[in-house]
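Limitations
The structure tokens in this dataset are predictions for the assembled complex, not deposited experimental models. Users should treat interface geometry with appropriate caution, especially where small molecules or nucleic acid strands are included. An illustrative entry is reproduced here so readers can see what is and is not provided.
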Amino acid sequence: MSGSPAAELPGTADRAAPGPVHHKGPGPAPSGWLDPRGRGLGGRTFALHRITGIALLVYLYVHLGVLSMLLIGRSAWGDFLSVVTAKGFLAFDVVLMFGLLFHAFNGIRVALVGSGVAVSHQRALFWAATVIGAPLLVYAALHVFGGT
Amino acid sequence: MLGHPSNRTARVWRWTVGSGVALLVLATVHMIAQHFVVGGTGGLRTYQQVLDYLANPVIFVLECGFLFAVTIHGLLGLRGILLDLSPGPRLRQWIDPGLWVLGTLTISYGLVLLITLAIRA
Amino acid sequence: MSDPETETRMLRVYRFKRGDGGEHFDEFEVPTGPRTTVLDALRWIQLNRDPSLAVRHSCLHASCGTCGVQVDGHEELACVCAMRDQGQEVTVEPLANLPILTDLVVDMDEFFARFPDEHPIIRRSEGEYVRLEDCIECGLCLSACPVAATSRHYVGPAALVAAQRLLEEPRGADCEAVVDWADRPEAAWGCHVGLECTRACPADAIPAERIMALRHRLTLDGKDGGS
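Predicted assembly:
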């Protein structure tokens, strides 16, 4: 038999092409970490840790930008305060506090587990962080709204 | 397969954890001092209160440390996310220099802000 | 007379044939009993409904690791995944993060290609015993890993665990080269502690714990690397 008969069959090129790669996630491959379906505690806290991390980084730059009003002077900062102490903004502060507390407490857990320390206690660490963090969040929310 | 460069990336993890631990202290101080001991205005300081606060040299040093720690921690986290997106070799070689520039600009701006306000106090 | 314990369930099965159009799901009504596994159901479809359905299997008792699939989004070995533990409608998909050859069969070459080239840790089990104990090379950990879902360069849990196993018991291997291989963003430091690999592992190889032990070693090693 001469040559490669298989190469002459119709559809050979299609069959030789690599198949698709299945990914978890609602969209293209980079979104896979976001998908909570079929995930356990570790996978879901990882996703939330990353979401809060991205949000806090964005907030850092917004915060630094806003602080430039202090450079402008007393009246600019006063005008800014009158806007951000509205109820809607204070609700945003509570969301921010949740992000900070979750990222901080879960960060302790990730640091301990990810450094090979307390690996077998990762679940207990999560619940300990929740027990400590939840009252702190309630206190922070009451303080933020009570201070108006 | 990828190449196996001997870059000791464990140090990135150590810096991330180290800056995170520092943030636990510094962010707590920042949040309590800036937002939880001030009465009125939703826990935010007035212009004069901000100046009075930064006039304390200990607080000034702590806020500078907070600026460094939060920038390092945030940009190392961003680095991890960017690397997870599997950038090509050309794009990848710009990630570290780009984050160094962004970090330097961020810290410079923050220091200008802090020093200016401390001088005004 | 029909068995009173037999009930009919709907299987939604992922289909893909090269050169025959795109991906889709086919639905099959399958009779299941108390001991029917997902693999039994898939083989019933092959025998009674659609002989073109491709599914890979071998040992039928969870030791070969060839029949890994996603059942309703969870990584499972089809041969030991009981249908009675599933809902009335069961979706079966191929493993994630690996190229699909056809239907439920993925290309495991890409799984093994992630292991360090210079250390054929788990493929040379005859003659030179360097195989990772417990790991059945099924790829479920890689499919479950949220980082592998994002990064195609990440080597994944099984390869990292194999590296850790080698460091635990080098048997003459070049530990420094393994440490170099592992100490990269695409290797040990690509793991973000999602711990899904241990959850998915059907062989109790505890991959997450082994990866964390590897990171512990890298964290303490310092710049000289140690060994």
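Some entries come with short summary sentences. For this one: Chain B has a mean pLDDT of 86.
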